[in-house]
Design a protein that fits this description.
Helices cover about 40% and strands about 15% of the residues. The protein is α+β, with helices and mostly antiparallel strands.
Length: about 250
């Protein structure tokens, strides 16, 4: 049996149990559900240890091809342009200010009246073939022999040549320079096919031939090795004693 005073005390307003408001619990439940959904989304979207990251070659190739690369024909043309400028500038520098790049270019590209079209084209092709390797040839000549190199043509003799001469003779007269030169030539010249003399040189009659030969004036070598102790069919093709033109004036 409960004491009357205890019943009266528990009936006081401050000691009554307050029922939970339904809106408070629903508000917390709503936030809890939202947080759970966000957590699940993050967890599901994160990469696992088994996830493989693939890099497609297309992305890499697209990045690399953004930089333009010259084609092979363009690269060849650029190299020919640079080597031609280098050759003409080098020759102009060696020969002095009076021999300009424009003047050298005109000499090399002008077709003379007595030069046939095939010979003119052959001369241009030979010149460009030398220009392609000119940087290496010039460097080796200067370093090893203290000489400069250049291309030469012989319009009257129908040929071309490569000449190496000392750097120190550039200011001398042409005749003095020629004595110091080493020349690798290909052109038409007279070749004796007669009896052998006591000095080892052959006597007339002669034939006209285009031959690759070496000239070193300081050593007495001219048209070597064709003009010493060499037997040729002297009268083949009716060319014996043919009076043709010699080298004539060459072109630098």
């Amino acid at each position: 049996m409960t004491h009357p005073r205890a019943v009266a005390f528990t009936n006081q307003p401050l000691l009554r149990s307050i029922p939970a408001h339904p809106l408070v619990f629903s508000h917390h439940r709503k936030h809890k559900n939202t947080l759970n959904n966000l957590t699940n989304t993050i967890y599901q979207s994160r990469p696992t240890t088994n996830t493989k990251i693939q890099i497609t070659p297309t992305a890499i190739s697209t990045t690399m091809t953004n930089t333009p690369t010259p084609s092979l024909p363009t690269s060849i043309l650029l190299y020919l342009l640079l080597t031609n400028i280098l050759y003409l500038a080098r020759r102009s520098n060696v020969r002095g200010p009076e021999t300009t790049i424009r003047r050298l270019f005109q000499i090399r590209t002008t077709r003379e009246p007595n030069v046939s079209l095939p010979l003119y084209l052959l001369t241009l092709l030979a010149w460009q073939s030398f220009v392609v390797i000119f940087p290496l040839i010039e460097l080796a000549s200067v370093v090893l022999f203290d000489r400069v190199t250049f291309f030469y043509s012989y319009p009257n003799a129908g040929g071309v040549g490569l000449i190496a001469e000392p750097r120190g003779v550039q200011g001398l007269d042409t005749k003095l320079r020629v004595k110091e030169q080493v020349r690798l030539d290909w052109h038409r010249f007279k070749l004796n096919v007669g009896m052998m003399g006591r000095d080892g040189w052959r006597h007339p009659p002669f034939v006209m031939r285009n031959r690759v030969h070496l000239d070193i004036p300081k050593r007495g070598m001219k048209h070597w090795p064709w003009r010493r102790r060499r037997t040729i069919g002297a009268y083949d093709n009716g060319t014996s004693n043919h009076k043709g033109k010699g080298k004539g004036n060459g072109r630098k």
